[in-house]
C-alpha cells in the first residue's frame, strides 16, 4: 500500500471516537465560570462581564460536544456492525493461548493456495465484508473495511487456527453467550486476505469483494485488478470445505416404528438415515444478484435436486443416498473439515459405516447411533 493518510486512518478493529477538544475546553470554561462567580460575589470590578463570557463559553463547549456525540451515535451509516462491535467483549490473549494448547495444527495441512480457497468458501458462506463509504466521516475520520467471521463459540478453535495460519492477524470478541467474532480490520491484514482469495470466489459475493478491491485502490492508490469468478471444478480445491464449514449440516434422521392407528393407515417401519444438507438464500440483496445459477452448479456436482422453500427465498441441497454420500465423503477425505463441522462429520461418518455394515439393524447399533446423534450439531458440548 502507498500514500496512506495514517493520521486519519482507523488502524484497529474497535470503534473508538476521534480525539476531542471539548472535555478540556469545557473544564477550562467551568474553572473560569467558578472563578468569575466568586469574584462577582465579592464585588470585584468587571467580574460580572467575565461571568457572562464564561457562561457563554460553557454553553458553547457543551453544545459542540453534544453535537459530536450525536453525530457519532446517529450519523454513521456505513455498517450496522460498526456500533454493535463496540459492546462485545474482547477475548484476552491468555484465553487464546490456553485454547492453542488443544489445537493440532496438522489438521489443516493446506498450502497457501488451498488456504485461499478455504477462506473464499468460508467468506461466501455466511460471513460479512464491511466496506465504509469513500472519503472522511463528518468527524474527519477514515474508516477501515472489515471482514467479520461470526460463528458459534464451539468454532473458536478453527478461527484460532486460521489466525495462526494467517500470521496472527485479526482479533476475537465474544458477543453474547454463544457467539464469537473473528475480526480482520487492519489495512495490511485485509490486503493479505485479498491476495489469498483473489480469483477464488464463486458466488455473487464476488461483486462485494470487487467493491472491497475498488475501495483499496481508491484509498491507497493501489492497482489491484478485479477478481474474476472461479470456474474450476468443485472437487479440485478446498473451496467447498470452507463453504460447508459456514452453511453445511450433517444430520441423522431416526424414525421409530409405529403401528396402525385411527390417524395412521399404514405401519411405519423403523429407519435410520443420514442427511447432508446445505441451504443458501436465493437472492443476494446487497448485490441485487440471484444465487440460483451457482446453486444449480453445486447441485449438479453433488448429484442432487435443488429445492426452493420459504416462499422461494431459500435454496436447499439435500443428500440421503449412501452412494451419493460416498462421493461427498471422498471429497472431505481429501480436503478435511477443520471446525466444529469437522467434529460433526467424524460422528456422522461413524454412523455411515455402521449403516453400510448393517449394524444399525441391531439394538446395540441403534443405541450407539442415538448416543452419537445426541452430541451433534446444536447439541454438541465439546
Q: What is the fold's blueprint, element by element?
A:
Elements: H1 22-41, H2 47-74, H3 81-84, E1 89-90, H4 93-100, H5 112-126, E2 128-130, E3 146-152, H6 156-165, E4 171-174, E5 179-184, H7 187-197, H8 205-220, H9 239-247, E6 248-255, E7 271-281, E8 283-284, E9 289-290, H10 292-302, E10 306-309, E11 314-319, H11 322-334, H12 340-356, H13 363-373
Antiparallel strand pairs: 1-4, 2-3, 3-5, 4-5, 6-7, 7-11, 8-9, 10-11
Helix pairs in contact: 1-2, 5-7, 5-9, 12-13
Oligomer: single chain
CATH homologous superfamily identity of the largest domain: Homing endonucleases
CATH architecture of the largest domain: Roll
Separate helix tally? 13
Question: So what's the overall shape?
Answer: elongated
Tell me the number of structural domains: 3
List the strand order in the largest sheet.
1-4-5-3-2
Overall strand count: 11
As a percent range, the share of strand residues is: 5-15%
CATH topology of the largest domain: Endonuclease I-creI
Largest sheet: 5 strands, antiparallel
Which structural category do the helix and sheet elements fall into? alpha+beta
What is the CA-atom radius of gyration, in angstroms?
28 Å
What fraction, in percent, of the residue positions are helical?
Answer: 40-55%
Q: Which series of helices and strands comes N to C?
A: HHHEHHEEHEEHHHEEEEHEEHHH
The span between the termini is: 42 Å
Report mean pLDDT, rounded to a whole number: 82
CATH class of the largest domain: Alpha Beta
